[in-house]
Amino acid sequence: MIHSFLLVGQSNMAGRGFLKDVPMICNERIKVLRNGRWQIMMEPINYDRAFAGVGPSASFAAAWCRKNEDKEIGLVPCAEGGTSLDAWSVEGPLFEHAILQAKLAKRSSKLEGILWHQGENECSSGLSKLYHEKFLKIVEAFRRELCEPDIPIIIGGIGNYLGSGFLGHYFPEHSEVNQELLEFAKKEKNCYFATALGLTSNPDGIHLNAVSQRIFGLRYFEAYDKRKHILEPLEGEENAINIDSERPLTKAEKTAILEKQFAGGEISLEEYQSQLMS
Amino acid sequence: MIHSFLLVGQSNMAGRGFLKDVPMICNERIKVLRNGRWQIMMEPINYDRAFAGVGPSASFAAAWCRKNEDKEIGLVPCAEGGTSLDAWSVEGPLFEHAILQAKLAKRSSKLEGILWHQGENECSSGLSKLYHEKFLKIVEAFRRELCEPDIPIIIGGIGNYLGSGFLGHYFPEHSEVNQELLEFAKKEKNCYFATALGLTSNPDGIHLNAVSQRIFGLRYFEAYDKRKHILEPLEGEENAINIDSERPLTKAEKTAILEKQFAGGEISLEEYQSQLMS
């Protein structure tokens, strides 16, 4: 039985870290739901845009696999870049789509948690003050619609870098949003906070870079696994980019990577065939 | 109102043509459904694998836009590589997922057609003989579940190259499957066939290459638009790769392309900003 996690929120849950900046994670025990079926995960996981990249869920899943030997984890990607809490309201298509995907996933997995990252769109016009009320409706609706009244929800903080950068003026309330996210996690049942403290961004000053996303995934996992708020960087988290890269690849993993390289036009037929044999 | 088309079948509908081999199609009148919402289409459209590439639907949509000035088309990608007709049976997750996506699309669009490409998985063990019966159940179920009893279904032929190539021995019945697809389209109401005659493949000998997919999309469109079977290459189809590349880009299209390049790490902040201004 696959143990599945629903990925929801905006672009930093979908992932915009550059794939080229970190070692690939390919682990046959990490699956992703596509078209209602599970397949071996390859990044980008949450393809909301043609430029989707590294999010927190790959290293989250790799950390989960280290803890849960011989078990399988499944990721259900439903995050959508640029979306506000209002866009996630329970009457809207994002919420409905996520519920449909999670229900499809539940047919062949046990839904174990929800990973949420959203807040950049609430950083101005007094929206931060409305976060708790709006988000509570969404959380309650997820739990109700999925018949999972106690499912853990892991809530990531937003980047402390948001006030700077060339678009920094869009985020005057970023500290307030972070405070709201933490208070929400503290107050509501089975919600846990993972801080973004010290994480850094792409040149856009908005999106977490790939190395930071690998670290963030470990913080999400620690919050989930220990059922506690993660308020400080983790000890040893600077090695996050190697979370799964020092493990020898299995035959299925080598084959999946070769298939990706060949079907994607990166290697020739001759290279593909000779490497398949080796 | 967006005019939408459901994309179903296996890998050659999803698309495995190499993106680098053809000019990009970016047209603000072509949308794609992601997470229940419409966004400007960027290839790859049907992200069933991390190596998804060019399929027939981009040039289909570009041809549709040429014919339907000032109207918008929406693509609903649900094809999944490596899938058999049995995997598409109406009790399975692929069918259910496609129905859910099409229903989400129908909330904000008019569903105008279904584009189908499948058959490589039926090319051995006598499966070709069962094609008609199995596919008819799927077609009837699509029309029934979507309350679209007369919706046109465009059925592409499979590659004549399938018998050759290093995996050619997997496809002994490829001619029989092609015959079944054509006969199906001729016999069943509002079904139209688009031949793959003369189209060529990637080095794998299985997947249509990018140039052929651009041509194939035009054939699909001709079959849809004229409501007739396309049994021969189209006149002038060799220019298919330029179907949308000679049209000047709009501001929205230029911005979308720049965002993709910047958010994907292809251009620097300085380049992005200077090009945004220009």
From TrEMBL, chains A, B:
Keyword entries, A-Z: Hydrolase
Taxonomic superkingdom: Bacteria
Domain Sialate O-acetylesterase span(s) in chain numbering: 3-224
The keyword Hydrolase is annotated on this UniProt entry: yes
SUPFAM superfamilies named in the record: SGNH hydrolase (SSF52266)
Keyword Hydrolase part of the UniProt annotation: yes
Gene3D superfamilies in UniProt: SGNH hydrolase
Protein name (database record): Sialate O-acetylesterase domain-containing protein
